[in-house]
Amino acid sequence: MSGPARRLRALALPILLALAFRGACYALMTAAAVWAERRPAPGALPDLVLGALPYLGWVARANYLLWLALYLPLALALLATDPDRWVRYMVTGGLVSLARGVTLALTGLGPPDPAHAGPGLADRGAWQAWLELVSPWGVFAHGSAQAYLTKDLFFSGHTATTFLLLLYAWRDRRLRWLALAAHVLVVASVLLARIHYAIDVAGAWAFTFALYAAREWRPRRA
Questions:
Q1: Could you report the per-residue pLDDT of 146-157, keeping only the tens digit for each?
Q2: Phi-psi region for residue 220, left (φ > 0), alpha (ψ -120 to 50) or beta?
Q3: Which of 32, 27, 38, 28 is nearest to 134 (CA)?
Q4: What pTM was estimated for this model as a whole?
Q5: Angle at 153 between CA 17 and CA 170, to 5 degrees
């Protein structure tokens, strides 16, 4: 049995606990998103970046599947090559989700592009919408996030997840540039799909890097 395989086996419980923590944090963040969706919000805000970019409908329709196709293989590659670091990555990812839940509750911005926003919750109850939003099948097969979450969600989860993965994969030369390319494509997709303002992307970089640094940075000894 190879070294990484032995580490995977030895870390089975931490891996499961990290997954459970990440999932619980995502569920709490999603509850904040549903709560924010039910609040009134102003119209679209001016955005210099969005104003210079075209809206691409096919990118909007495929956005979540594109994120999944770019994110999942790299996350699994990190797990296979460095399971210890992957566990820390998942825990930090959970903390990023919690931070995003707080910012969702604190902000109430209107959709970046009201003309292409989904129908919203309509007559859906909050509990039913939450269940569909925490379900991978609901999000990726039925487009529940695009349908129910019409308001701006500060900060961008697409950006945060792929940026955090890039930070944790950076020291692996085999994954570094793939993770960077995936992150750039995801950032471009959320802007071209008009699902986020540019400030949501910048905010994701700031919050994600701050939490990564708090967890991973250690001062060098003189």
A1: 778 888 999 999
A2: beta
A3: 27
A4: 0.91
A5: 50
